[in-house]
Amino acid sequence: MFNVKNGDVILFQGDSITDGNRGRSQDPNHIHGHGYQYIIASEMYADNFDKDFTVINRGITGNKISDLYGRWEEDCTSLNPTVLSVLVGINDLYADYNGARHSDPEDYKKVYRSMLDDALEKNPELMIVIMEPFFGIAEDEVYSEFMSSRIGGYRAAAKEIAEEYNAVFVPLQDLFDEYAKHTDTFKLLWDGVHPTTGGHQLIVRRWKECVEKRFNER
């Protein structure tokens, strides 16, 4: 159970996995989209009706880390989050596959540091959660091999950033790899990137496992 504080602003940031086809209006039936962030928000609200707090989703489909940084003031620091959870990286690698840019985990880390520095300058007490980029298996073997062989660089970069900023790190690749030993991987990540309903629930379990203790000790 998450013991939310009055005044908390819990912000989820990232790409399509976090976007979850969220509504762009203030309609509370669609504002969080669908996926892991919606499930987590649902639990937080249901367990804390006596508290005044906000859970916000600002994931945007297709975003690379540079896209996040380009909207960081509007979609992060101006929202004054007390808890920030970020999942980003797969589109940086996908852009490299498409020949749009050279993907470099070192550049990824530089931009990540800039984002977190800006957020911490605004709120030095900010709790940060870094979620690990992941990849499963895709039907296109060339694409699948490319992504699988290079995702490790982004995984390592995200973990390094989490350690550097004393953030909570949420490992996800090993989670999906372990479940894939016992079931069809497409039941977890339907296209190698985007989770199924069950895949999102696995992310929720891992996020809670990693985050809940520090969240409640703030």
Task: Please explain how this structure is put together.
The radius of gyration is 17 Å and the shape is globular. By secondary structure, the chain is α/β, with parallel strands linked by helices. The chain has a single domain (9-217), classed as 3-Layer(aba) Sandwich (Rossmann fold). The protein has a five-stranded parallel sheet with strand order 2-1-3-4-5, sandwiched between helices. It has nine helices and five strands; from the N terminus they run E-H-H-E-H-H-E-H-H-E-H-E-H-H. The model has no long low-confidence stretch (mean pLDDT 96).
**CA-based gyration radius:** 17 Å
Rounded mean pLDDT score = 96
Structure annotation, total helices: 9
- How many structural domains can be distinguished in the coordinates? 1
> Can you summarize the main beta sheet?
5 strands, parallel
Give, in spatial order, the strands making up the sheet with the most strands.
Answer: 2-1-3-4-5
CATH topology: Rossmann fold
Query: CA-to-CA gap between the ends?
Result: 14 Å
CATH superfamily: SGNH hydrolase
Q: What's the level 1 CATH class?
A: Alpha Beta
